[in-house]
Amino acid sequence: MPADFSPSPFAPATARDRLIVGLDVPTVDEARAIVRRTEGAVGTYKIGMQLQFAGGLEFARELAEAGHSIFLDVKLLDIDNTVAKAVENIARMGMRFVTIHAYPKAMAAAVDALAASGANLCLLGVTVLTSMDEDDLHAAGYAGSVPDLVRVRAANARATGMGGIVCSPQEVSDLREVLGEELVTVTPGIRPAGSEAGDQKRIMTPTDAIRAGADYLVVARPIVMAPDPRAAAEAIVAEIEAAL
After folding, report:
1. Of 28, 39, 56, 60, which one is least surrounded by beta carbons within 10 A?
2. Which range marks the domain in which residue 75 is found?
3. pLDDT tens per residue, range 218-242
4. Is 6 part of any domain?
5. How far is CA 207 from the centre of its chain?
6. How many Å apart are CA 75 and CA 97, to the nearest integer?
């Protein structure tokens, strides 16, 4: 453990805090309805690209102003100055989490911009998307394995001072020695037993992900598409609690 070790200020305090619900729906009205039905039962709401292009950015600001923890999943990757200016604006919106593709220069620009802002925002480095497997990596020109690339990008995230990483739950157990306790792990690809995988390839149940060491679980379709989203969220929180 390094001499300058300190626990992450973004570590979850409760089982409920660990559940991030992805508002992956077409409209703000639908997203607002899900928030209304699940309010108090989840830790954070994630707003991704689908909703961002349908008024989701202003909705994210609205939710944050109402006291909700918001994860803005924008996956920033651009020249340094553009990433830095984007992070400055996101910090002013009152977001809790934001994603940056885990390229060293992009992450370093984001970290420097955040430090200057003084905001309490967790920068998350996206390692390898959970919809990708090794065939997909090879098709994109990468020669190594998924776990190897995730490990390299996790190490880069720690070296640049990020708040955490996004990875599949399948890689979490091998990453703690790389990340220490300073960085949190956020894991999409969570599927309760009996749920369809959809376009996800590297998946786990909530129980297995928590036991592997994941800090946060991102769940979208199994909750937002459920007949009773609140009951679905509460069932996952109960599963998290039992696995801790």
Report:
1. 39
2. 16-237
3. 999 999 999 999 999 999 999 999 9
4. no
5. 18
6. 11
